Amino acid sequence: MRDFVRPGSFALVLSMFTSFGYFDNKQEDLTVLENMFSSLQPGGACLIEMLGKERLARVLQATTSTDLPNGTVVVERHRIFDDWTRVRNEWLVIRNSRVKCFKFHHTIYSGQELRDRMERVGFVAVKLHGNFDGEEYGPDAERLIAIGRKPQVGASRRR
User: Which of 12, 35, 36, 52 falls 20 to 30 Å from 151 in CA-CA distance?
Assistant: First the structure.
């Protein structure tokens, strides 16, 4: 993501399932957006889908556990840090008396923060949706879906 660029090659770029924002250096998220923008054909679209900060603030629990049908137990621990811009996650997967631990953290974005970053790299007509049915993004939205376009050739690029 940080290095992949194919100028003008694609009509659509997708980032799904909260796969955006996993770099330690937040500037790298802008680099990824710049690469997405550069790789799009004029008029092409970029769709980024994630759990928005607004929703996370409402539903986040420090610790949860889930019992799976096969007897596996998944314990998830979450901690917000860096002035409510990042979340640290630890997943403990317990199966057959064995524990595997997975740790990761990522930047969390509000709708406005994601829109601002997309517009900063040149995307225009950025629209926010709360689900794939196209409902408006707001405090009750299940997901944050941002869709922006690369301007057509000859159109002014908004910064």
Answer: 52
